Amino acid sequence: MKYKCPYCKSVHEGEPGPHCTACGKVMVVPKMRETSERGAKHRKIEAIWRENEIKKSELHGTITPSMFRNPKFYFALMFILTLLGYGLFSATDKAVVRKTVSPEMRALRNLNVLAEALGRYHFHLGRYPSARQGGLGALVRVPGPVADPKWNGPYINLLPKDPWGMPYYYEMPKKQGEWPVLLSCGPDRLPNTADDLKPELAKFDPGTEWTNGWVSAEKRIPGVIVLENKMKAE
């Protein structure tokens, strides 16, 4: 082997001695390591480096083929899918609940439609229908006992009952300029109690914008038939 004196820089061959043959100073020359020892150390370093890279990739969430052979991966996937399914079901259920209309809201909506129809009836005939003329029935059929040529209905296509199966309560006003009494008896099915439902008073006055091009329900809605009132004058 060749080696160099650290003091005089002279190059020597062979086994290193304790003294430099040129300057006579004591030298410390490290022994050459065996080739097999260097190779083993190199392989060990490479193994440590590969293990470090695998751990880094796992920490950063990189998907490796070994993950699919781990049962923990499938348990985690099932847990995530369960959470997603529960969230989707809850969101759908809430949307259905939001779209559900309560009986009270349906009754108020029908009352407002009836009040507006009464306002249009009043606009054409100058009065609200009396009980003798059929009450609310005069909105869907020609009022009796004598047909009025000013009637330009039907103003609604049918007369529904309230959500509790009762007819809507109606009384024509007792004085000129007053609003008629129109209400749903509510869940207790009794008039003039705390749970009665009434329309917005403004609905009784529909204005005049609708009169331009007014078309009765008979022509607006297919299948509506105007019924003649069979009542006779007493």
Structural overview:
With 234 residues, the chain is mainly α. Among the domains are: 68-100; 103-228, Glycoprotein, Type 4 Pilin (2-Layer Sandwich), CATH 3.30.700. 35% of the residues lie in helices and 7% in strands. The chain contains four helices and six strands; from the N terminus they run ββαααβββαβ. It has helices at residues 35-59, 71-99, 103-125, 217-220; strands at residues 2-4, 11-13, 141-142, 169-171, 181-183, 227-228. A two-stranded antiparallel sheet has the order 1-2. A two-stranded parallel ribbon has the order 3-6. It has a two-stranded antiparallel sheet with strand order 4-5. It is rod-shaped. The protein starts with a strand and ends in a 6-residue tail after the last strand.
The tally of helices reads: 4
The shape is rod-shaped
The strand order across the widest sheet is 1-2
Reported for the largest beta sheet, the result is: 2 strands, antiparallel
- Runs with pLDDT <50, length 5+? 230-234
What is the CATH class designation of the domain at 103-228? Answer: Alpha Beta
Mean pLDDT: 80
Relative strand content: 5-15%
Q: What would CATH call the homologous superfamily of the domain at 103-228?
A: Glycoprotein, Type 4 Pilin
CATH architecture assignment of the domain at 103-228: 2-Layer Sandwich
Using DSSP, what is the number of strands? 6
Cα-atom radius of gyration: 49 Å
Order of helices and strands: EEHHHEEEHE
- What would the CATH topology of the domain at 103-228 be? Glycoprotein, Type 4 Pilin
In helices, the fraction of residues equals 25-40%
